[in-house]
Amino acid sequence: MVLGHYGFGLGAKKFAPRLSLGTLFLAVQWADLLWPVLLLLNVEHVELRPGNPKFPLEFTDYPVTHSLLMGIVWGAVFGLVYWLFKKDVKSALVLGICVLSHWVLDLVVHRPDLPLFPGDSPKVGLGLWNWPLLTALVEGTLFVIGLLLYLRVSKPRNTTGKWSFWLLMTLLVVNHVAGLFSPMPPSAHAIGWAAQYQWIFVIMGYWVDRNRITVTVQ
Ligand SMILES: [Zn+2]
Description:
Layout (H helix, E strand, L loop, with lengths): L2 H10 L8 H8 L1 H11 L4 E4 L8 E5 L1 H4 L1 H19 L2 H21 L4 E2 L7 E2 L7 H22 E3 L2 H23 L6 H7 L4 H12 L1 E3 L4
Antiparallel strand pairs: 1-2, 3-4, 5-6
This protein binds zinc ion.
The site of zinc ion has 5 residues, from α3 and α6.
């Protein structure tokens, strides 16, 4: 899942308007931002299946980034660190939930390859990726709902705040569609390097948010 995660981050702004969109994107995508790093460090592993267009990647081993238990742990770490700096319980909770949401949303689309905990764990996944059109509908809906929720609490502070937001939204959609049609990477190592570009969306999230203001909802 790609767009759905970003949709969740956008929508979360409504419940914790003090959180920057950059921080929210960092939280919802933490698992997928850390995963390529751990691939490069040979801590987590993925196998390539060029003959299987629906599931070209077999996630054989990714307990640190994609187990339920670690999702909870990472969520707690994010929430705690935020609380220590800002002393804002509600925003800290929302941030923690955002981190955990990644696993829950991945659960919907992945095949049963998501472990519950590191080690010898059962693996779960509802496999929505078996139905690409339905997946697109679910992800698109999540994204649009999140975008609309975000717009209810955030208004542009200046012209940059307006166009940068729509630029980011466009790039997210393009990124999602390009991901569907992009050629198979040659190796897990190549995926590890290529996937680093996702940080741009976190950085852009901070940039967009700096040029927008939070409004109180009636
Ligand atoms: Zn993921």
